[in-house]
Write a structure and sequence with these properties.
alpha+beta, binds methionine sulfoxide, six-stranded antiparallel sheet, Beta-Lactamase, 36% helix
Length: 162
Amino acid sequence: MWIIQSNYNDIETFYSSLNTELHSLIEGEKNLIANMANISSWIYHAMPDLNWAGFYLWDENDQELVLGPFQGKPACIRIKPTRGVCGASYKDNKVMRVDDVHSFAGHIACDGDSRSELVIPLVKNNKVIAILDLDSPKIARFSEKDEAGLTLIMKKIADIIL
Ligand code: SME
């Protein structure tokens, strides 16, 4: 049994613990989908004020992102690299932190409650293989510290799970 303790008030400690916890969660497991499922669940339950947390995987044949494991309401299944915050993150291999999704041209509203968003590419051999997408019903939910903490963790995790 996993016990998810969240000490989000101390954000440095939170991300240091999250790093350790996610590494324990995936230790010894090679299946990408299983690892992404558990990672999205852990993040969704550990971080306050999220309404969606999950992955999109790049489909080389179809040349678009396809919905992967997630927590939250059902979401759009396929996203072209020219569309939305996720598409921009994929296309530019860039972390996207959007304070107000209503002012982001082309934002795809999967869940009407979403107001801010953080998208982090997962890279292997200089190629984006997947993206992690976090949505919040709060405007400007994600800080620079969230971006830095999660980006570092995803960099290390990508080396293991991809
Ligand atoms: N809002 C995203 C689409 C994915 S859902 O939020 C889960 C976007 O604009 O790319």
